[in-house]
Design goal:
The complex is a heterodimer of chains A (114) and B (106).
Chain A lengths: L3 E4 L2 E4 L5 E7 L5 E7 L5 E9 L2 E4 L6 E3 L9 E3 L8 E8 L9 E2 L3 E5 L1
Parallel strand pairs in A: 2-11
Antiparallel strand pairs in A: 1-3, 3-8, 4-5, 4-9, 5-6, 7-8, 9-10, 9-11
Chain B lengths: L3 E4 L2 E5 L4 E7 L6 E6 L5 E7 L5 E4 L2 E5 L5 E6 L8 E7 L3 E2 L3 E6 L1
Parallel strand pairs in B: 2-11
Antiparallel strand pairs in B: 1-3, 3-8, 4-5, 4-9, 6-7, 7-8, 9-10, 9-11
The chains are: A mainly beta (114), B mainly beta (106).
Chain lengths: 114, 106
């Protein structure tokens, strides 16, 4: 079945460490997105990419970095510069730029800084 | 910048009661989408509305898009325990509302 795979499901990080969250899709979707969700809050856009080798900052890109070397993959690195990284991270994709298409979300990664 | 506000933040209902969540934008939206997130899960796409005044139904769920395309609502008739979760609207340029968390008492 086609879908989005995020790994790991749970991740613990020590302060000062960088960590990379994986997102892989086999839906042949062009656009991919990273959102952050904090308890009791909505989704905030971190980065998005509409085509390979191109990506744009969202509303809360500071302290994060991404790459899009392959259509299927859009990994997110949470750097030590991110002051409050503990959150639920969701990866999503659409056939092209979101207008007109619903997001397909992965099951998420819960990151905890210890 | 563009904002999408959703109310209420929480709603507790008795099973069988109706439920409505509202989504309001500061600007005109080209379309609006609705998602459901079960506790501990991820958002799942429910529907998209595009036309001014559009109304769509999915069984007990009714979705409306305002005439000015600045607001939308999701109404659930006769809630069931399976309706529990957080309902999000998303409109404009990748903007999500804060969500309405629905709890249903059996």
């Amino acid at each position: 079945d086609g879908g989005i795979t995020q790994s790991p499901k749970y991740l613990f990080r020590k302060e000062g460490q960088n960590v990379t969250l994986s997102c892989e899709q086999n839906l042949n979707h062009d656009a991919m997105y990273w959102y952050r969700q904090d308890p009791g809050q909505g989704l905030r856009l971190i980065y998005y990419s509409q085509i390979v080798n191109d990506f744009q900052k969202g509303d809360i890109a500071e302290g994060y970095s991404v790459s899009r070397e392959k259509k299927e993959s859009f990994p997110l690195t949470v750097t030590s510069a991110q002051k409050n990284p503990t959150a639920f991270y969701l990866c999503a994709s659409t056939p092209r730029d979101r207008a007109g298409y619903g997001y397909t979300f992965g099951s998420g990664t819960r990151l905890t800084v210890v | 910048g563009q904002q999408v506000m959703q109310i209420p933040q929480y709603q507790h209902v008795q099973e069988g009661e109706d439920f409505t969540t509202y989504c309001n934008s500061s600007t005109t939206l080209s379309n609006i989408q609705w998602y459901k997130q079960r506790p501990g899960g991820h958002p799942v796409f429910l529907i998209q509305l595009v036309k001014s005044g559009e109304v769509k139904k999915q069984k007990r769920l009714t979705f409306q898009f305002g005439e000015a395309k600045k607001n939308s609502s999701l109404h659930i008739t006769a809630t069931q325990t399976t309706d529990v979760g957080t309902y999000f609207c998303a409109g404009g340029k990748l903007i999500f509302g804060q969500g309405t968390e629905l709890s249903v008492k059996p």
